[in-house]
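#help-structures
NK: newbie question, is this the right format to request a structure? protein is Carbamoyl phosphate synthase small chain
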Amino acid sequence: MTALFHADPAVLVLEDGTRHVGHAYGARGTTLGEVVFATGMTGYQETLTDPSYAGQIVLQTAPHIGNTGMNGEDTESRRIWVSGYIVRDPSRIVSNWRADESLDDALESDGVVGISGIDTRAVTRHIRSAGSMRGGVFSGEAAALAEDEQLRLVRGAPEMAGLNLSAAVSVATAEVTPATSERIGNLAVLDLGVKQATIVNLAARGFDVHVLPQDVTIDDIRAIDPVAVFYSNGPGDPAASGDHVELLRSVLDDGLPFFGICFGNQLLGRALGLGTYKLPFGHRGINQPVLDKTTGRVEITAHNHGFAVEAPLEGEFDSPNGYGRVEVSHVGLNDSVVEGLRALDIPAFSVQYHPEAAAGPHDANYLFDRFRDLVLATRAATPTDHVPESPASEPPDRAESGHEADDSGHGDTN
């Protein structure tokens, strides 16, 4: 483990010229991305390995990070995805019987440049006022670059608005996780940055989960004879994902039941004919309050999104693209952002947050049951449906993707 008492210098530079000097953490070098803050006090391993954070430099608002280290069971994908990492007070030791390595070592192994020892509260307050912005972390020799050169590099980085990152995080070939309860049928999951806990939850509801590359066609989806389609979470701007929207319209035209989460919620909105927009600083963390308008229940939920759907919060409205009546099903209680959509005339719904909730909370886990029930109800209404054959007993090698089958339901231990 790197000696934190004698770390190399590092500096965080924001595109408006704001600078914060601290200590190197993780790999040394230069990293660029959108600087965002995550408010969860636990679950940093799940945050770091969530593909939705690709292209972002993540700041943890909780001051003390790393005390439980990193282990081989709680990862949500094949690697750490954040572009950079910002913490105030990294733990000097690892104290957990499940730990395989320190967080510092894991960051260094995956080449993630970080910074510690800065006033993370000040950075958070600045972003809340000015909005998320491009930034860079410079450590080791890069910390000695001239200030104007560092700022030039930051301002030359791509903005998140207009960015499509799906190809960077998706699997390259289709992969299958068999159902772990009474089987319903094949589920087509478009991998836009799916998390392992999502796959586990879907398999537990009776689906043979086919995780498909983000560039599949509607014919590829039809070829597995699915009982439903699922769009995962993922990074990027939904306005830059026109192909995924058109694919979803074909899914809806086929009458297949659909469930989307996070990025999938935004893409359902666009498929229905709604607009999306960029939030000032987004929602990230595992403590976001959301109202389920159907039940009147307030849920504490896990979020990671910088874009949202434009839709009227009250009442029903007609889909501009001709899919019948739609309503906003969930609303964020901090800022009244659309957090869920439900189509009333076709079998489709979505939420803007993460019901798999690794590393918690589990208030929204019922949504997987709601999806299963929707699929069963749709099948019951169409008697000619049949359950397609189960995939081979031995699923394809999953080593490349890191979406290893696991029914442990991990995700809330650190």
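mod (FA): yep, format's fine, and the tokens are attached above. Residues 390-414 have pLDDT under 50 and may be disordered.
NK: thank you!
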